[in-house]
Amino acid sequence: MAGLREAAADRPRFAIVVPTWREADTIAACLAPLQRWRSRAEIVVADGGSDDATVALARPLADRVIVTARGRARQMNAGAAAARADILIFLHADTRLPPDALERIEAALAAGHHWGRFDVRLAPPHPLLHLVAFFMNLRSRLSGIATGDQAIFVRRRLFSAVGGYADLALMEDIDLSRRLKRVGPPACLRARVTTSARRWHRFGIGRTILLMWWLRLRFFLGDDPARLARCYRQGRFR
Fold this sequence. Notes:
Elements: H1 2-10, E1 14-20, H2 27-31, E2 41-47, H3 54-58, E3 64-67, H4 72-82, E4 87-90, E5 95-96, H5 101-110, E6 115-123, H6 127-143, E7 153-155, H7 156-161, H8 172-180, E8 187-196, H9 198-202, H10 205-220, H11 225-234
Parallel strand pairs: 1-2, 1-4, 2-3, 6-8
Antiparallel strand pairs: 4-7, 5-8, 6-7
Helix pairs in contact: 10-11
């Protein structure tokens, strides 16, 4: 009995799960700010078989690095399974948490929420991207749907109860949100994570805005996520 109590006391409160694939250029910058929380949070990197230096660069900065089948949903599920903590935070490799992120999550959970997300800002700044972030945050607050860019956090028991992330090629975050909000609304934290605008610049900001709305509409109408993922990668509408 004493051993069980000691094991529970030794268990970290938070697990920050970072899915990666070919993130050699960004992984150190992602993990370095998390080191301040190593006494309270375990850092789990779930790599999808990168053929660059991602894994080697992540190992000194993480508690655990696992390599699993590629696919963000699969990787995040594997990372959650490898973690020991009761509170899971899913963090994209190009997203940075605010300095008081853990305190804000604790307060949200203490207030009765079981899951939530942060507001987002896009970097580098651009007038159009300010509007994009504003409407992302507003839409999320009104709909109760969170995106992966917003650093979704959830109690492990609830994550397991709803079945974790569905094995979808795209929109796995929206699908998870829809199942979580059946249990309760998210904590929509106004503190902002900062996420890279690289995907917005790849095909142009205007085109990407239209593409993301079109993909989301097609997803809600029941289109095949694998087909939508191909459209997303190629920046095309059909």
